[in-house]
Amino acid sequence: MNDFQIISKLGEGAYSVVYKVKRTVDDQIYALKKVKLLNLSEKEKLNALNEVRILASVKSNFVISYKEAFFDEKDSTLGIVMEYADKGDLYQRIVEHKNAAMFLEESEIWRIFIQLVKGLKALHDLKILHRDLKSANVFIFSDGSAKLGDLNVSKVAR
After folding, report:
1. What distance in Å separates the CA atoms of residue 4 and residue 7, rounded to the nearest whole number?
2. Which of 83, 108, 112, 114 has its CA 20 to 30 A from that of 37?
3. Helix locations, the chain, DSSP H
């Protein structure tokens, strides 16, 4: 964890917290998911390790890319370093538009949809089932690209 400087908290789930971080050796910005292992059941611990294994095996422009993972003994967490989506997630984008009483452009909806289908195809080609497809797990980038993420409950079909 000493290699990273926390910039801000991006989100929090039941078992994890995601931060925007800067790696000190190269000044690159990443998303760091810290999974609290202390109170997890064996199945939940296996899910966390499964996410690392699955992320590391997927190489697609339509799925959030994995960078590295580490165990932080100080606070008993598994750290998963991933690509940072600089425009947040699709759920945030929908809420922002709803609050502003605006519609998303049809062309943007189609662009995101097509990228999601390509992300799902990349996963399915590897026999990976996402199992938690929702707008909060679709990440948006300033170049207009969208990528699937949060593979915590994914399964590999046999």
Report:
1. 9
2. 83
3. 42-57, 90-99, 106-125
Contact predicate 66/82, CB 8 Å = yes
Could you read off the pLDDT of 24-59 as tens digits, one per residue? 999 999 999 999 888 888 888 887 888 888 889 999
**Token pair listed for 35:** 């999974």
Residues annotated as catalytic are 132
Q: In angstroms, what CA-CA distances link 37 with 4, 53, 66, 73, 154? A: 20, 17, 20, 10, 18
Tokens 């997630």 correspond to what residue?
89
Give the bridge partners for 82, in sequence order: 31, 66
For residue 142, the cross-strand partners are none
Among candidate residues 16, 5, 145, the one with its CA nearest the CA of residue 87: 145
What does the alpha-carbon distance between residue 10 and residue 108 come to, in Å, rounded to a whole number? 24
Q: 70 with 33: CB under 8 angstroms? A: no
Region class of 58: left (phi > 0), else alpha (psi between -120 and 50), else beta: beta
Smallest CA-to-CA distance from 124 within 73, 26, 25, 54 is with 54
The model scores a pTM over 0.85? yes
Q: Which residues pair with 96 in a beta bridge?
A: none
